[in-house]
Amino acid sequence: MNKKNNLKNIYKIAISFSTMIFSINLINRVIVNAVTVDYRPAQMLTSLNGVAQHAYNEQELDLKSKQALQDKINAQRREEQNAIDRQNQIWSQVDGVASIEAQNMVLEKLQSSTGVSKEQWNQIIYRESKWNIGISNFSGSGAYGLFQMLPFHWNFLGHKPNLLEQVNIAINLYYRAGLAPWALTV
């Protein structure tokens, strides 16, 4: 027991001594730094002015950078809005042969919505209408548009469907009957 107590006491003394040495070193550092600061107030002021000037220059540069970034963001927004306007213009097309851009948009939407390949949809549309958005079947059935859908598929609109409406109706028709309305099976 005595050995254990002696070891504990020695350990406590060592910790105390170590803490005292650390404290003395810390106090010395504080004193040295305080003396150094007292001898160099002019240099410190010059340094602070330099830092302030640098910060001012950074702020000025920052304003220029911010303006350039804002100009870039505005340009990107204009480009995005132009692309949206262009897509809306394409989707609202009601007559004529669909442009290559419109064909790609249609095929992408059909494939992503139905899982049927773009190639398969392209064959259907080419066979039904040769990509003529406003074509009507002259046999009297009233079939209309890219997919030659019968009037009961689109009459609820109250007008002949534009490109987007035709695609959406075709997608709904696909979900109800698969490719059967176009005399195909998956």
Commentary on this structure:
With 186 residues, the chain is mostly helical. It has two domains: 2-78, no CATH class; 95-182, no CATH class. Helices cover 73% and strands 0% of the residues. It has helices at residues 2-39, 41-91, 100-114, 118-129, 151-154, 163-177. Helix 3 (100-114) packs across helix 4 and helix 3 runs parallel beside helix 6. The longest helix has 51 residues, at 41-91. It is elongated. The N and C termini lie far apart (90 Å). The relative contact order is 0.07.
Helix tally equals 6
Number of separate structural domains: 2
Helical proportion, percent range:
over 70%
Radius of gyration: 40 Å
Give helix and strand order, one letter per element, not per position.
HHHHHH
Report the portion of residues in β strands: under 5%
Tell me how many strands there are.
0
Task: Report the biggest beta sheet as strand number plus sense, adding barrel if it closes.
Answer: none
Q: State mean pLDDT (0 to 100 scale).
A: 77
Q: Kindly, what is the distance between the CA atoms of the first and last residues, rounded to a whole number of angstroms?
A: 90 Å
Morphology call: elongated
Low-confidence regions: 32-45
